[in-house]
Amino acid sequence: MTFYEIIKNDFEPMLRVGVKYCGGSNPEYDRVALVEQIKERLEGKVSFVPPESEGVDIILAVNGCRTACADLSGFRGIETWTVTGNEEGEEFVRKIVEREVHINGKAKK
Amino acid sequence: MTMMTAEQYAESLGKLNLVVYMFGERVEDVVGNPIIRPSMKAVAKTYELAHRPEYEDIMTVVSHISGKKINRFTHIHQGTGDLLKKSKMGRLLGRETGCCFQRCVGMDALNALSIVTFDIDAKYSTGYYKRFLKYLEYVQENDLTCDGAMTDPKGDRSLPPHKQPDPDHFLRVIEERKDGIVVRGAKAHQTGAVNSHEVIVMPTLSMRKEDEDYAVSFALPSDADGISYIMGRQSCDTRKLEGGNMDQGNLMFGGHEALVVFDDVFVPWDRVFMYKEYDFAGQLVEDFASYHRQSYACKVGVGDVLIGAAQTAAEYNGVARASHIKDKIIEMNHLNETLYCGCIACASEGRKEPSGTYCVNTLLANVHKQNVTRFPYEIARLAQDIAGGLMVTLPSEKDFRSPETGKWVEKYFKAHPDVSTENRMRILRLIENITLGTAAVGYLTESMHGAGSPQAQRIMISRSANLPEKQRAAKKLCGIEE
Predict the structure, then answer these.
(1) Cβ(B262)–Cβ(B183) under 8 Å?
(2) Number of domains in chain B
(3) A25 pLDDT exceeds 60?
(4) Confidence at A12, pLDDT banded by 50, 70, 90
(5) pLDDT at residue A11 tops 70
(6) Containing structural domain, residue B204
(7) Phi, psi of A80 (to 5 degrees)
(8) pLDDT surpassing 50 at residue B145
(9) What are the strands of the beta sheet with B25-26, ordered from one edge?
């Protein structure tokens, strides 16, 4: 690995995830607690930002039930992950960790 | 400003010079009064949630007049999506507060006026709609809470306004001036009146030419000269003065109602939205009532709390696994979700009015409200059934805390070994609060009479149901040709 590649790798900007909630009129689980868990699990790997921030890589749509009515109309063209329960939150964490491993793996070659 | 925080809202109320009476005395510190304050905190919740990202999809919206983000309670519905979110907002806030949060009535008044002022202009070339939009902008920009004041004391119910022995039993215009009008009368049962920055007055029924002095709609600051508020009592209201934190049931929130007296109050012309156009009084009443009948979505949220409390009481009593208890919980959920169906249905079947405002489906809104006059009573009955008689025979918190009696209360009211007596008492007090105490005003009697008594909905159902079309369908199938 060249010196440039080492520097680039160390300063690779973290994935920026914007959390967009549904309105929470009748949620079937604690949406905020789930997001806190996800943030904890992905600490150091992902930067969580307000959804309308510049340079968001992924919108994490956190819906209280399977109606999944979070308004995503302002995020067209951005990769979106929809979560409607704790299991899908777990799945999101797993995929992000996999992606991280993949990116790091490629960088090391 | 555009969106106030809960703290800014409380501060803004403190700046008002409201004339409020309770228990025969003037209330000097309205915001700090221990009986009124829980109701202020319930309204404050509508401000707080609007700033939290996990609720902003429901609680906020972009204004169609300013393009700014505003609290939904100041919004004019621009589609059925807005109407649906309004229903969902009602359930959300009902569940968050366990009581009436008071702010829907002003939203309903604003929406009804956005339709009717436009329609009056179309017929009479008046300038009400433009005037209304200017007022709306002021409300949105300052994120104000408005009291929608419709119900007059009404005097002798068999007589129209102009034939009442006391002409002030319906609010009326008593003087026309160059710069405005002077009004006299009162509005009864005004929910959240002393937590409001503005009061929006509307006529209470359809009117004829003879009643034209009563066909008036306007808005005023709630502390305008000549306006006084006399607080209504609520069952168990003085428990809030006793100290402690158990016997109130709901420790944080509540509602209130007041008689609002207009003692020769001046209204400038730029605040007048209907003046003697008696032929539009009925439409304003109907549009407002339809919106407000939809607003009873809040009872679904309070129902959520009551069902949760009943299930908890069953667990604390050690009977949650009994089949009849399970069945009662199922029935409570069935009734509560049936209510939800109605408020969602009338929203999704909404229609566009000439002004561009979307209004709920009138028939379905009335069916929904008719259900609300019944189902909360049955849900409350089932909750009391599950709670048991202890709910109304529990000693006070002071007896529970007393060195002399506390040990016996603790010992003899212990049920499930893993649950403290105190927690058992708390959940029973909450059920008492919603079904018999201060919150029963909102959950039960307001469900019966608020937004119109049951017969008012039956009249609207009769008027809106298309019987000839149903007859045509029936006759066609059995071969009747007339």
Answers:
(1) yes
(2) 2
(3) yes
(4) low
(5) no
(6) 6-279
(7) -125, 135
(8) yes
(9) B25-26, B20-22, B227-231, B257-268, B180-191, B172-176
Q: Is the per-residue pLDDT at A10 higher than 60?
A: no
Q: B106 near B86, Cβ under 8 Å?
A: no
Both structure tokens of B396: 């006070």
For chain A, the domains span: 7-108
Assess whether pLDDT exceeds 70 at residue B280. yes
- Boundary of a domain, candidates B218, B250, B279: B279
**What's the rounded Cα separation, in Å, for the pair B394 and B425?**
8
- Residue B84: is its pLDDT beyond 70? yes
CB pairs below 8 Å between A and B: how many?
38
In whole angstroms, give the CA distance from residue B391 to residue B312: 13
Considering the segment(s) A7-108 as one domain, its CATH architecture is 3-Layer(aba) Sandwich (3.40)
Active site residue B100: yes
Mean pLDDT of B76-92: 98
- Alpha-carbon gap, residue B419 to B318, rounded angstroms: 10
Q: pLDDT-derived band of residue B39, with 50, 70 and 90 as boundaries?
A: very high
**Interface predicted TM-score (ipTM) of this complex, two decimals:** 0.86
Burial A39-67 (b: 16+ CB within 10 A, else e): eebbeeebbbeebeeeebebbbbbbbbee
- End-to-end Cα distance, chain B: 65
Picking from A19, A21, A25 by the largest number of B CB atoms within 10 A of its own CB, the best residue to mutate is A25
Count of C-beta atoms within a 10 Å radius of residue B479: 6
Q: To which H or E segment does residue B216 belong?
A: strand B216-221
pLDDT for residue B448 is more than 70: yes
Which residues is B268 bridged to in the sheet? B180
Q: What is the pLDDT of residue A100?
A: 74
Report the relative pairing of strands B351-352 and B358-359 from DSSP bridges: antiparallel
Nearest CA in chain B to A50: B53
B292 within 8 A of B204, measured Cβ to Cβ:
no
What mean pLDDT value characterizes chain B?
97
Chain A nearest CA to B96, separation (Å): 10
Domain limit, last residue, from B279, B314, B333? B279
Active site residue B358: no
B131 lies in a domain? yes
